[in-house]
Request: fold
Amino acid sequence: VRSRAASAAEVAAVSSAIAETLDLQPLDDASIEPSVRLHLGLRSLAAEGGWSGLATRCWPECFTEFGGAACTAQSMLNSELGLPALCEADAYGVVTSLILQWLADAPSFVADLVDLDFESGTAVVWHCGLAPVEMADPATPARATIHSNRRLPLLNEFALASGRVTVARLSQSGGRTRLVVGAGHMLEAPLPFSGTAGTMRFDSPLQSVLDTIMTEGLEHHYGIVYGDVTRELHAVANELGLDIVAL
Reply:
């Protein structure tokens, strides 16, 4: 309701802001309007409720009932307000993002671990197009794209910048609340898949990372933030009485 009620002037202002950070070719204002309106509606609800973060059930309603993707709509909340917004109703991912952002004083991104290359010892973290533009590799300017299977806008697309990263997840695996903690380096590498993604090398051996994920039954979403806040995450876990799962 909030999204549909947004004025034409509000839509135009957000569309202009998007054009300043994303190369919109070959999309146009009409095609991105549903995502722009989603952003305005979510921003209004967050302001009214005093929310620190939010999670949407983007599958399938944003596409089937509203006609646009939630990716850039949510990414902009992080860029504008420092408010992490996640898809797939991942409330634990939102809390993970908040913890990482508070500790690192930097934007965070929740992604799937989608590829492990044991020959190179690298892994790919990816999501449709959700990462905030501040995390983009300066050598590969951020651009707009459409969803890889729904074929609707609006998504961010870029390779993640190189640098030291912390990986974390407030996890419910095994019926217990635990804190997953890992670290590594995001590498300077071409965009491996459409959307927002990066190629990284964990500090731990890749086989050990995979064994831990499978043995512990960990979820598919992991929070990523630039910088090393692993010691701080251990302190958070100690304060909250959480066991650590080390990646």
